[in-house]
Amino acid sequence: MSRLIVRTTRAPLALAGFLALPVFFASLMAVSLAIEKPKTYAWMRGGKLLQTYHDPTASNEVRIWLLAFVAPLLLVAVGVVACRLRFGIYVVCVAAVVDALALTIRLGRWERHHTTRYPFGEDLYPDSSPSSLTNRGQWEHEAAHTVHSLVGYTIGLAIAAVVITAFLAWRRSRRRPWTELPAGSELQQTGTAPTTSI
């Protein structure tokens, strides 16, 4: 077990912070699809239920932002621990891939539920209105596509980091260490092999 622990290095933490950026934006879009909902006013008129939709409440927005930080902070926490591991870079890369893929597990369901909560679309205007800028379900589809793109970007960066780290490790292993001579020694040529004399 002690062979897996080395002196502290900040490289895993730096990589975790770098990979946490696309994870954060993917998380922000995914959480928005999961829990964002418009503020709704409903009343009865002539025996018919009428509803109007308004922008989400401030508390709903705060919840979205707080939950969006969970995934990247988990990745950074792994980076902190990985700083003391021999293969910390690889641990961070695996954690980034798992963290990113976890955002897509229920993404399709969140997209459908968000569309249901916004019957007039994200802009809160009916599709028939001249003021409507997005059709119903359009924003949700684009948001889900953005999440998948950011997840793919994160995975690509993690794979690139693994390849670069493995290449540098292989290159270091190919180098021949220099042999240090004792102080005061001299090289003497005897035949074809050098010897040392003290």
Average pLDDT: 86
- Strand adjacency order, main sheet: 1-2
Order of helices and strands, N to C?
HEEHHHHHEE
> Which radius of gyration do the C-alpha atoms yield?
28 Å
Approximate helicity band: 55-70%
Structural class comes to: alpha+beta
CA(first)-CA(last) distance: 42 Å
**Low-confidence parts:** none
> What does the largest sheet look like?
2 strands, antiparallel
How many strand elements? 4
What would the principal axes of the Cα set say about the shape?
elongated
Q: Strand fraction band?
A: 5-15%
The tally of domains stands at 1
| Helix segment tally | 6
Features:
4 strands; 12% strand; two-stranded antiparallel ribbon; 6 helices; 198 residues; alpha+beta
Care to describe what's here?
The chain has 198 residues and is an alpha+beta fold. The protein has one domain (2-197). The chain is 57% helix and 12% strand. It has helices at 11-35, 58-68, 70-82, 88-102, 107-117, 138-174; strands at 39-45, 48-54, 186-190, 193-197. The strands form two sheets. Strands 1-2 form a two-stranded antiparallel ribbon. Strand 1 (39-45) and strand 2 form a beta hairpin. The radius of gyration is 28 Å and the shape is elongated. It starts with 10 loop residues before the first helix and ends with a strand.
